[in-house]
Amino acid sequence: MSDYSNFNQQPDQSGYSMPPYQNSYSQNGPEDFSKKPKKKRSGGIIALALCFSLLGGILGAGGVMFANRLTNDKPSNEDLTVMVEGRRKASEIETVTVDTSKEMTPAEVYAANVNSTVGITTSITTNFWGFQTTAAASGSGFIISTDGYILTNYHVIEDSSSITVSMYDGSSYDATLVGYDESNDIAVLKIEAENLTPVVLGDSDQMNVGDSVVAIGNPLGELTFSLTSGTISALDREITLSGGITMDLMQTDCAINSGNSGGALFNMYGEVIGVTNAKYSSSSSSEASIDNIGFAIPINSVRSIVESIIEKGYIAKPYIGISVMDVSEQNQLYGVPAGVAIQSVSEGSPAEEAGLQAGDIITAVNGQEMDSNTLVEHVKQSQVGDELKLSIYRQGETLEVTLTVGEQVQSALPQQEVQPTQSQSWSQSPFEGFFGGRR
Predict the structure, then answer these.
(1) pLDDT digits (tens, 9 = 90+) for 29-54
(2) Which of 20, 152, 182, 407 is exposed most, by the fewest CB atoms within 10 A?
């Protein structure tokens, strides 16, 4: 479950909005890459249901409060002018590489990872006509570090006033929300625990249709630590979630039900290659039931965001700073080349620094022909500091422009409005992941 290129003229809070009816795309993230379906079935609508289980019940009011603490030591010399400086030790991620060359049975994958998966229960306070009620919701998650960082879906903890994490051994912990990225449907939690067993993060780009996978989670919020097995049914499915966010997901026929959200999808080498977050469900009782069409967020698409939340305290994403739309076939009839037309260029952006202008048409990037979808994905997969060679059509001339991918940041906890310093490093991240599988 970013302003990659700022492909929008009026970005929403997460920067992923898209002007209606213009086929314009925001590289701020997949949220605004939604398309209206080309075909509709008569007699029913298929709705995509987010997988978390509402348990209901009045539990009382609650709230999540965040505070920064400063330590002030009084000097012994009363004539000394005192300045208070806040300090905190930045979280650092150490990459550990393990050998995952041995293919496992589903039973072996379960035994190796069940202690690394968790159940998540949240309290959600709502206000009805002046009366506060608190309902419980449940989901899944998995441990990604020995000191208690946990990855789950954003929709599992959305609007929660308290979060409790349950372990396989029966122990439970109060969890703190470290940060989240709503547009990618992920959230990072932290529990105060040490010497935990984290999962091994794999490479979702290595998955193929037909590869066997298993999921471990808490379907219905009651059947805790259940394993379901299946295969990868499809890759790069463009799916629009119930909240309107569009994501490129892996499809699986593993049974993914309410409460499985945020759980891990494993390959048969025991590596996490996805985060389960959605399933198809029928919105009409007259429609035939829909079975075993579940979805998972490819781990490669969110790994750098998770690392950024933990290590930097904010979300850093590559961007180039343009709003675009595809050149229509009608315009091509008048001699305009196929490509991506730039509608606007953000002030101070990498695109402006490279000399791009509104009205330019990007016909290729690094020799590859472009449409707006391809350009979005290309920038998303770039590293800050990467150089892109753009072929530009401008008023009858063809130009070659070199653009350096920039970095845009957003708070991982927007209510805190925390922003890093303006100076940004263009070097690549010193780590490649929390734990790298090798085979």
Answers:
(1) 333 333 333 333 333 323 333 444 44
(2) 20
Contact between 210 and 230 under an 8 Å Cβ cutoff? The reply is: no
pLDDT in tens, 91-111: 666 666 666 778 999 999 999
Number of domains in the chain: 2
Q: What are the backbone angles phi and psi of residue 411, rounded to the nearest 5°?
A: -65, 140
Same domain, 253 and 361: no
List, for residues 260-299, the tens digit of each pLDDT value.
Answer: 999 999 999 999 999 999 888 765 554 556 778 999 999 9
Residue 103: CA count within 13 A, CB half-sphere? 3
Residue where a domain stops, chosen among 281, 311, 341: 311
Q: Which of 24, 183, 261, 308 is catalytic?
A: 261
Residue 185 a catalytic site member: yes
Among 311, 335, 363, residue at a domain's last position: 311
- Tell me if residue 155 is catalytic: yes
- Domain hosting 430: range is 2-26+313-434
Active-site choice (155, 323, 326, 378): 155
